[in-house]
Amino acid sequence: MLYIKLKRIVLAVVLVFAVSSILFATDSYAAELFSDLINKGTEIFEGMRDIIFAVSGFGIIAIAVGGIFGNFNWKWLGAIIIGLMVIALTSGIIQYMVGSNVVNITDTLK
User: Fold this and answer.
1) Which ranges in the chain belong to alpha helices (H)?
2) CB burial of residue 55 (10 Å; 0-12, 13-18, 19+)
3) Least crowded by CB within 10 Å, which of 29, 45, 72, 83?
């Protein structure tokens, strides 16, 4: 019985902490403490995005060659297209969820 009560207490504490963190969150420390982290994350994401675009171009060429020889794979083509859309729309999704232009990632789907 002690285990069940302790589990409920821990769950209640975590729930209260999560709700209070959401309700009483401010921007006072986020911009100062995490600005370097945000800048490095943006730099890494933009570099990886360029690499992903180039590699997916090779993937589309490979699917086209497979289609020429009669081995067209719709599953691979769909995965490449969905992956490219997610990478291209990431900036817009983040800005929509946050509500402002916090992350300075250039949108590639304009």
Assistant:
1) 2-23, 30-33, 35-68, 74-98
2) exposed
3) 29
* Residue in 106, 59, 63 with CA at minimum distance from that of residue 87: 106
Confirm if 76 and 64 have CB atoms less than 8 A apart: no
* DSSP assignment letter at 96: H
Please write down the long-range contacts of 45-54, taking CB distance under 8 Å and 24 or more positions apart: 45/90, 45/105, 46/105, 46/106, 49/87, 49/108, 52/83, 52/84, 52/87, 53/84, 53/87
Torsion of CA 10, 15, 16, 20, to 10 degrees: 140
The answer to whether 56 touches 84, Cβ cutoff 8 Å, is: yes
- Condensed to tens digits (0 to 9), the pLDDT of residues 40-93 reads 877 888 888 888 888 998 999 999 999 899 888 889 889 999 988 888 888 777
Other beta carbons less than 10 A from residue 84's beta carbon = 19
